[in-house]
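The protein record quoted in full:

***
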Amino acid sequence: MRFTSEQRLDDGVLEREFTLGDIPGILWTSGTVSAPAPLILLGHPGGLRRMYPRLLDRARQSTADGFAAATIELPGSGDRPRIAATEQARADLRRAMEAGEPVGAEIVDRLVLPLVETSVPEWQAALNALLSLPEIGGPVGYSGGVIAIGTRLAAVEPRISAAVLFAGSFVPAATFEEARQVTVPLHVLLQWDDEGNDRQAALDLFDAFGSREKTLHANLGGHTGVPPYAGEAAARFFARHLT
């Protein structure tokens, strides 16, 4: 892990960009917390620069609540090399949606499963590096999408103590079986009118999670219409489980 830039934001948050091998990432820490802070991993659908404003808002909330926050770029997104098979699957997905056709399971598997297989070990490597820093002490939460990535990470990574998952992406059939292995407390966000999301699949996935404590927070509106109070509820969830 190598830090490549550092800046102090106007609210005192320290933002440091880093690389982990060839994977870019960002770490945010509070300027007011002296003890090692719990960590929240911020998942997203790819394109770190494109997603930066929303990631920054989430990071500011996390640091204001006494956590550190970090994210890394997805394979094949942003400045990382493109993956031919993923690009083809994405093109097939766009064609199906533009034609008003159902998106078949084969396309979803080709698009999502390779990302899960590659990105989960990368998140675990980032977690190793982040937890070695003196200012970060755990416990660890995961927040965001792609929901199949968050599900796999919550199932296989014992250092994840709680997760907020965003039900706004396609779900491969294999993810439903992995969901049964998830036992950490969950808070799932669902936009009821998300134009690109299969609502029934999101509800079925929520039902499949094996966690004894799981909450579904559903709101009217499209993919980007998450109301501010939904974020506040997620923040209270993390405060309850990570402090």
User: Anything to note?
Assistant: The mean pLDDT is 94.
